[in-house]
Amino acid sequence: VAWIMRPDDANVAGNVHGGTILKMIEEAGAIISTRHCNSQNGERCVAALARVERTDFLSPMCIGEVAHVSAEITYTSKHSVEVQVNVLSENILTGAKKLTNKATLWYVPLSLKNVDKVLEVPPVVYSRQEQEEEGRKRYEAQKLERMETKWRNGDIVQPVLNPEPNTVSYSQSSLIHLVGPSDCTLHGFVHGGVTMKLMDEVAGIVAARHCKTNIVTASVDAINFHDKIRKGFVITISGRMTFTSNKSMEIEVLVDADPVVDSSQKRYRAASAFFTYVSLSQEGRSLPVPQLVPETEDEKKRFEEGKGRYLQMKAKRQGHVEPQP
Predict the structure, then answer these.
(1) Is-contact 84 34, C-beta < 8 A?
(2) Marked catalytic residue, from 15, 38, 101, 200
(3) Residue 91 catalytic?
(4) Are the C-beta atoms of residues 42 and 111 closer than 8 Å to each other?
(5) Tell me: the pLDDT tens digits for 122-153?
(6) Are 114 and 38 in contact (CB under 8 A)?
(7) Which of 29, 195, 199, 205 could form a disulfide with 173, with the two C-beta atoms 3.0–4.6 Å apart?
(8) CB of 240 within 8 A of CB of 207?
(9) How confident is the model at residue 288 (pLDDT cuts 50, 70, 90)?
(10) Is 200 a catalytic residue?
């Protein structure tokens, strides 16, 4: 699948929004997993996004470039599909291509007759026996993480009057969105890609408010979709800064859904994730980030947790670097 990047896909500096790329990734994953889940005779279904594993934005994509998105099914369990998606950017003037993203997504097949019914997934054929075993380990790990995340954080982002610069309250932001038909699948619930695009938009506002420079998405930790969001619901996407290193910012984004026309249902947490942003100069060089000043005990706790994630990922990256002879 190929898309040409247009001005409304990018920020004022011409860098394509991370949310735009995440939306393309999700659409490619939804197509291949829905095709696979309907490859055998039986009840028809559509694949719904359950989780996106951590994805790094390896290099920026710009207006006028063409995004090439390819997807492959790498594992199936009884009720879920793992999809690997790669994104290449192409400069159509020079023909130069570069890898910008690699992502892993998990989908579950939902019946077209009953949106709450999860169907069985046709098994995929593996070229090597080890592929199935490796895939099963990834499946068990993400299943455990999803359960832990679902109940980890039930709080909400509260506004604060006259906050001081560089505090959590100063940059925290919220966006309220009424879910319309164009946001939804045939089932009438929101596309995962639409939710991710809104989450990235809010995270970007938080990052820009904090450092007042051009900012770009550097990576997204696992995005967990805890529950479906239906057409007609009002969603509140809230973002707050949790941690800063010298050159990066971690932002927690929470999505709450409010079934305003259904009094029998209460507001609930629909999705959550951590986004990492970097600050750039007008020439595209990395800039130092103003250090976050946590004030409350909860903010200090979240800062330490963010620091732990940052150090863990830094050690993991350094571990992949081959030692020089």
Answers:
(1) no
(2) 200
(3) no
(4) no
(5) 999 998 889 999 999 999 998 888 776 655 55
(6) no
(7) 205
(8) no
(9) very high
(10) yes
